[in-house]
Design brief:
The protein has about 290 residues and is of the alpha+beta class. It has a single domain (about 5-285), classed as Clavaminate synthase-like (Double-stranded beta-helix, 4-Layer Sandwich). Helices cover about 25% and strands about 25% of the residues. The chain is built from eight helices and 15 strands. The protein has a seven-stranded mixed beta sheet, with helices on one face. It has a three-stranded antiparallel beta sheet with strand order 12-6-14. A three-stranded antiparallel beta sheet has the order 8-7-11. β1 (about 5) and β2 (about 15) form a beta hairpin. It is globular. About 35% of the residues are buried.
């Protein structure tokens, strides 16, 4: 059976069938998936009961793994998973649900804001691959907004205005929006702002997209208040319902998305009551979007 991709939304998202991700893929299968990503930006692979080794092997078809360092508050000896995985579950190392006032949980609430993974790194991420191992009984959908369609529907004046703008991204900015401001000197150093272009061009399709994220805390050369107000307006435009696909998770779903073309957020669920074990591998980008400040 060959790979088949069915569109899930007019702008973003496709469902992939006809492939077992637990086995090695052929070159043609990898090429078909990459072509599907270029077109749909988000691909859903239902019914893929992967273990960590299988998820990692599948991920390596698309590039180098971005290590899960400098993206959370945990030290190496506190991590539940290896650094090949970003642990976006609500579980501790003993597989128990973290407490409501746990500092790591409060920091992770930032995942409920619209963002692009690793835009806070000088070299931002290419793909994210999220495997659902345990899913709560309700809630916890992930929403994906198509930044290409959002660009397409901007008026010409706004397109010209944002074409060459550079934004500053940091986890301090996204978490600060939730009131999480108590960071250690080590954490502040780890979360130093980086610069990213506000408009990106896809290397294959050539389509433009707006590179937005809750990690943005300013526009280079703009007053902070004016910059944040302008970014807020762009986010409101880009996350209109017609641009958004909402994925209702099932156990053993694997969802892959292109961080260069989408924003996403997780929706609330009873995270202090029910377990949600989802594990993300991330494919590193191939370079910065703009030169960094000295």
């Amino acid at each position: 059976m060959s790979i088949s991709i069915r569109a899930l939304h007019p702008h973003v998202g496709g469902e992939v069938t006809g492939v077992d991700l637990r086995r090695p893929l052929t070159r043609d299968e990898v090429a078909a998936i990459e072509a599907g990503m270029d077109r749909h930006a988000v691909l859903v692979f239902p019914g893929q009961p992967l273990d960590d080794a299988q998820q990692l092997a599948f991920s390596l078809n698309f590039g180098e793994i971005e290590k899960a360092l400098a993206g959370d508050l945990q030290k190496l000896d506190e991590k539940r998973l290896s650094t090949d995985f970003a642990d976006v579950s609500n579980l501790d190392r003993d597989q128990e649900i973290v407490k409501r006032d746990d500092r790591h949980r409060l920091f992770a609430l930032g995942n409920r804001l619209w963002h692009s993974d690793s835009s806070f790194r000088a070299v931002p991420a290419k793909y994210s691959l999220l495997s659902a191992r345990i899913i709560p009984s309700r809630g916890g959908n992930t929403e994906f907004a198509d930044m290409r369609a959002a660009w397409d529907e901007l008026d010409d004046e706004t397109k010209a205005r944002i074409e060459d703008l550079i934004c500053e991204h940091s986890l301090m900015y996204s978490r600060g929006k939730l009131g999480f401001t108590e960071l250690t000197p080590r954490e502040r150093e780890m979360f130093r702002p980086v610069r990213q272009r506000l408009v990106r061009t896809h290397p294959v399709s050539g389509r433009r997209s707006i590179y937005l994220s809750s990690h943005i805390g300013g526009i280079v050369g703009w007053p902070v208040a004016e910059a944040n107000d302008f970014i807020r307006e762009l986010v409101e435009h880009a996350t209109q319902r017609r641009f958004v696909y909402s994925h209702p998770w099932r156990a053993h779903d694997l969802v892959v998305w292109d961080n260069r073309q989408t924003m996403h957020r997780v929706r609330p669920f009873a995270d202090t009551v029910e377990k949600r074990d989802v594990r993300r591998t991330t494919i590193a980008g191939d370079g910065p979007t703009v030169a960094q400040a000295a």
